[in-house]
Amino acid sequence: MDALLSDTTVRTVVCCGSGGVGKTTTAAALGLRAAALGRQAVVITVDPARRLAQSMGLSELDNTPRPVELPASFVSPGGSLHAMMLDMKRTFDEIVEAHADPERAQQILANPFYQSLSASFTGTQEYMAMEKLGQLREEGDWDLIIVDTPPSRSALDFLDAPERLGRFLDGKLIRVLAAPARTGAFRLLGAGVGMLTGVLSKVVGAQVLADVQSFVSSFDAVFGGFQERAERTYRRLQDPGTAFLVVAVPESDAVREAAFFVERLAADRMPLAGLVMNRTHGTEAEDLSAGESMAACAELEGQGGHPLAAAALRLHARAADLRDREAGLRRRLASAHPDVPVAEVPARTRDVHDLAALREVGAALGGGPPGV
């Protein structure tokens, strides 16, 4: 992992995986580790729990990168760390404001259909994460951008979002709905469109239909081909300067999802750098199996003495059983994908809630001491 973070040709690291596997913590720890290696890093999180702000000692995060104050021992010369929380509606608004004259931008921003689309349309959050990534790369203030992707059950949600949103905004239905708002539309398309919009007006309401027509008329004039923007965003993910990390935990469902992510990234020719296995478990006596521990426990209990030793052996047996089950899951994943490097992060007794804990996670990822 340190080799990846030290490689200056790598400009973007994308942490992906299913929900609850520690993507946010991983992204933050990688950002802190990168600063310790001398990189100027910024972390984009889309996690609504806002754990990133708390762990970095920030009172809040918003759509603008904020500097993270790091102790001198946590950062190398030239290194720095910023963090931001993606506001998908604000990012969408920024795109409108950047590409429209003030009057047209105000019309779009005030449109009820746009307000609903920008706040809740499926895929908007994922797409705006990539838009924000593009903005930060163009600004050039950071040489490494780390993206914490939205929690999802499938890689399809993240990888397909740009195309899905672009296809929707350029889709035939939207253009048919907008037809009456365009000059001469009825003469060009005939009475069939009028009949369709009449039916839709009764179904969704005349005002809603009017809002859609007004939105598309203004929006189309500003963007033209939204699909082209979506395709450019998708190509950015395939750029050699991008590295994907699949994050998982050693549980059956999470490992199954991780395997799917790996396969989907390969199918789409996305640059997969490796897999992070969070919250792994071990034991203090690695050579003592669960069976041996339980046998010794039974012998002690049969003798009627050493209750504390017997209890300790029973606890060890449970820990060893968990360790062995996790090892079996990791072996199956490694067998199916032998060329994917894996970094393991041991389970912690406490949640990651400050910079010191993030530093320890980064050290586990990098395979070296916290101070690098």
Automatic annotation (TrEMBL):
InterPro entries: ArsA/GET3_ATPase-like, ATPase_ArsA/GET3, P-loop_NTPase. Signal peptide: none annotated. Residues 11-281 form the ArsA/GET3 Anion-transporting ATPase-like domain. It holds the Pfam family ArsA_ATPase. PANTHER family: ANION TRANSPORTER ATPASE-RELATED, ARSENICAL PUMP-DRIVING ATPASE ARSENITE-TRANSLOCATING ATPASE. This is AAA family ATPase.
